[in-house]
């Protein structure tokens, strides 16, 4: 299972990269705005900075919503760095653009996916990644993890190569459940990754080992 961090915060990206388990980064316009990164040039520069920190895939989202605009913007983003994955929304022109990018060998992440039907369409169009937003489904009392299971079944039935990128992950149990179901990737905040470290018996056990060592020295 690949671990992506879902942020545009460079310090957090560095921290996750330093842990040695990071496979990539996802961003979106809201995450950029949260870091105060606004304006096309600043956003482009920020993507370059992220690519300098990590070795894996970096999702960069298009703002255009019409076919020609998505193609133009996506091609510009893809040229920035070979780690860039063009993030395209699950809309009609987005699906057409994903097919275009796929035929050109440009990698894509189909975002804002909330149903198995949308995930099937993204795979048919040749998306590299499909991003079902599990946390946002949970927020409206719908089972986000069940969507991951449905997509896993459908993709396995037909041998689709599109990778399931569980997005809108909010906590460590989402990560563990996604791993059990067989999501290829999860993207979440730094806390969802670092939370995996924690167990009270580890802390108690380590404290005892260190105390016993001191007794004998
Ligand atoms: C996915 O790529 C999105 O950036 C993200 O996971 C959305 O998460 P949120 O629902 O916590 O905003």
TrEMBL record:
UniProt pathway annotation: Carbohydrate degradation; pentose phosphate pathway; D-glyceraldehyde 3-phosphate and beta-D-fructose 6-phosphate from D-ribose 5-phosphate and D-xylulose 5-phosphate (non-oxidative stage): step 2/3
EC category name: transferase
A single Gene Ontology CC term: cytoplasm
Keywords, alphabetical: Cytoplasm, Pentose shunt, Schiff base, Transferase
EC number(s) on file: 2.2.1.2
Pfam families assigned: TAL_FSA (PF00923)
Reactions catalysed, as given in the entry: D-sedoheptulose 7-phosphate + D-glyceraldehyde 3-phosphate = D-erythrose 4-phosphate + beta-D-fructose 6-phosphate
Location relative to the cell: Cytoplasm
Catalytic machinery residues: 87
GO MF annotation list: aldehyde-lyase activity; transaldolase activity
Protein's job: Transaldolase is important for the balance of metabolites in the pentose-phosphate pathway.
PANTHER family recorded: FRUCTOSE-6-PHOSPHATE ALDOLASE 1-RELATED, TRANSALDOLASE
Family: Belongs to the transaldolase family. Type 3B subfamily.
Identification of the protein by name: Probable transaldolase
The organism of origin for this protein: Aquimarina aggregata
Lineage: Bacteria, Pseudomonadati, Bacteroidota, Flavobacteriia, Flavobacteriales
Gene designation per UniProt: tal
């Amino acid at each position: 299972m690949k671990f992506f961090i879902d942020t545009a915060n460079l310090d957090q990206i560095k921290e996750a990269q330093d842990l040695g388990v990071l496979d990539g980064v996802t961003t979106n316009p809201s995450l950029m705005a949260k870091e105060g990164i606004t304006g096309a040039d600043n956003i482009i520069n920020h993507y370059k900075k992220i690519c300098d920190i990590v070795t894996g895939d970096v999702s960069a989202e298009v703002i255009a919503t019409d076919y020609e605009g998505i193609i133009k913007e996506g091609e510009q983003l893809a040229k920035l760095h070979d780690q860039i994955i063009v993030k395209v929304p699950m809309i009609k022109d987005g699906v057409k653009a994903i097919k275009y990018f796929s035929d050109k060998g440009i990698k894509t992440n189909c975002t804002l996916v909330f149903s198995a039907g949308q995930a099937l369409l993204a795979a048919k169009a040749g998306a590299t990644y499909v991003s079902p937003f599990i946390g946002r489904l949970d927020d409206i009392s719908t089972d986000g993890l069940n969507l991951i299971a449905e997509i896993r079944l459908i993709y396995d039935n037909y041998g689709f190569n599109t990778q399931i990128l569980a997005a809108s992950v909010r906590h460590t149990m989402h990560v563990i459940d996604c791993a059990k179901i067989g999501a290829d990737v999860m993207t979440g905040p730094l806390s969802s990754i670092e939370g995996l470290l924690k167990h009270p018996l580890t802390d108690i056990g380590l404290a005892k080992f260190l105390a016993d060592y001191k007794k004998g020295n």
